Amino acid sequence: MPRSELESYRAGYVAFIGRPNAGKSTLLNHLVGQKIAAVSDKPQTTRFRIQGVITKPEGQIVLVDTPGVHKPGYEMNRRMMATVQDALMGVDLVCLIRDASVATGAGDKFVLELIQHAKKPALLLLNKIDKLKDKTALLPLLDWYRNEYEWAELIPISALRGNVAEVLPPQMIKHLPAGEPLFGEDDFTDQSVRTMVAEIVREKILQTTQDEIPYVTAVVVEKWEEEREDFTRIHCAIFVERGSQKKIVIGKGAARLKEIGIEARRDIESMLGHRCHLELFVKVEADWRQRAHLLDELGIKR
Ligand code: GDP
Ligand code: MG
Q1: pLDDT tens for the 302 residues of the chain, in order
Q2: Residues in a beta bridge with 56
Q3: What is the CA radius of gyration of the chain?
Q4: CA nearest 128: which of 161, 106, 105?
Q5: CA dihedral sign, ordered 182, 198, 74, 277
Q6: In testing the pocket of ligand 1, which one of 24, 25, 26, 29 has its CB within 8 Å of the most ligand atoms?
């Protein structure tokens, strides 16, 4: 890169937050497109799940997921709250995605509070404006948000339509720190998409079981069949250390495993950009930590 370009280049980590159904995944897909990929094990990425990287001539946006932020419905204990705050502290910019077509609820207040506490540069993205018959309906909402926080930008968008992919990235890059790109093309591989699938499943286990299952769970993608171009069949094994933990993960009448599967499949389909069939098997493996081949499959360095 020529020196003059490097001097004005900006790069950083960006988190999308917003209550469920606000349109985060839709927007992410629209911005990143099919080229979503995970990232090699660079040290600074271990705290986040990288959801996608947008590279433009003027800068690079690394979109990261902040665990727990999107689950205001769950009762938040102090520890979880701290985890969420910690995740937000590590990013350079936060984008609050709000469904502007529905009334403000407790979930919206919750995510707003997270931003108020984090005191990070933030963009307010009022989404789904295509659903508003009367665009002036946005005005009271803009007023309300303006009173609550000093936003870097307030931008009405439609994650589904229009030119959001052209308009939004420059607005995000503007508020990132000056610096070189964080990732190069070589950091992306197919293999890491599978790792990301395993991480998504693991995240859903942690979210649905909360404190009941501490960090004993490992997830391994055992089967990956691209049956058609737009359909992938995935089998994942969930490893726990004890029978009692298996019961917790499966839940009464398998309800919890089903919830984990539904939630994970939604995110995986968003990431892959097509439908998938996800099957989860819970296996008890008392000493999985010691099992070398498993560690290799998990990509954990020995
Ligand atoms: P998330 O839970 O925040 O990740 O939300 P999703 O991205 O899964 O979106 C929830 C629903 O809202 C999906 O049915 C999307 O198709 C829809 N949606 C997202 N953005 C828009 C938008 O700009 N306009 C309209 N009309 N629907 C949208
Ligand atoms: Mg989503």
Answers
A1: 665 556 789 999 999 988 878 888 788 878 875 444 333 333 333 345 677 788 889 999 988 877 656 555 545 556 566 666 777 888 999 999 999 999 998 889 888 988 998 899 999 999 999 999 998 989 999 999 999 999 999 999 999 877 898 999 999 999 999 999 988 766 655 556 777 788 889 888 888 887 676 556 788 888 888 888 789 999 999 988 889 999 999 999 999 999 999 999 998 888 777 899 999 999 998 776 666 556 555 555 43
A2: 59
A3: 20
A4: 161
A5: positive
A6: 26
Stated pTM of the model: 0.66
For ligand 1, residues with CB inside 6 Å are 18, 20-26, 127-128, 130-131, 158-160
What residues does 237 pair with on adjacent strands? 220, 281
Give the burial string for 110-128 (b: 16+ CB within 10 Å, else e).
bbbebbeebebbbbbbbbb
Give the Cα separation of 271 and 38 in Å (integer).
10
What single letter denotes the amino acid at residue 73?
G
Q: Report the 3 state secondary structure along 273-291.
A: CCEEEEEEEEEECCCCCCC
- Which tokens sit at 189? 């591989």
Q: Tokens 């954990």: give the residue.
A: 300
Q: How far apart are CA 251 and CA 243, in angstroms?
A: 12
Residues 16, 63 contacting (CB under 8 angstroms): yes
Q: Which atom of ligand 1 is nearest to the CA of 22?
A: 3
Atom of ligand 1 nearest to the CA of 18: 3
219 close to 239: Cβ distance less than 8 angstroms: yes
